[in-house]
Amino acid sequence: MPSYESQKDFDIFKHLARCMYARAVDVATLTDRDLRSIQIRLQKLTQRGYLAWIPSPYNTDEHVYYLTQLGWDKTLEMGATDYEVKANREKRDGHMKHDLQLTRLYVALYRILGERIARWSQLTRSRKERYGNGPQDKVNTDAVFSVRLDDGGYAIVLVEIENQKGIKESLNKLRAHCRFAQSKAFRKKFGDNPCLSLLLKENDERLTNVLKAAHEDDELATRMFLLATYKEPTTYRTPVDFETRTWGFQDLAALV
User: Fold this and answer.
1) Bridge partners of 140?
2) What is the pTM for the complete model shown?
3) Is the pLDDT of residue 5 over 90?
């Protein structure tokens, strides 16, 4: 590894490969480094062609960084990712708020779990899968990650971030997650690892509406589903007991 690619640079590449888009403050939090030093390093990596940036949708003076093709190639060479990636940006800038919400979730979870997050991917190859022959027998999540359990095994977590007002689409996604987790396609891809489904809704009212409907559905009334709001993305309620308690990733042993 060339001398300028320190372990600190490795961490920058690793986290950008995972969350795809990040502000300097996100990278500083993930790497536990001073914000100013991260801003300088991101600028240098941009000058070298590894990164590019677009303005934040919340503050046009703030940069949102992402890997270029050269950056993805270097990330693979460094061992910070297992995948060869063609860096065609899949989403329009209009989706950036959604993408940054995913980044906020990743940062919040990483602060709790750290390197227990063994893998996190928002790449299409990781998050899109068919589990049957029917037209609706598929999942297309926003992200997929694995978290290491205390017994040395792993739990697979399917992630969805939604801003729809109704409940129909949310319930359809939860049902697809449930059926995927029970399918041969899931076992082929993830082995016998348990599966959880993490769904974020924009506010508590929308969240509660989904929880109530899932509670009344025999297929969905399970602790496989962890639902939270954008504001509190690591405090979860399940369709089973949403009126009486909350859960967190410190409760993984009880959830899986």
Assistant:
1) 128
2) 0.92
3) no
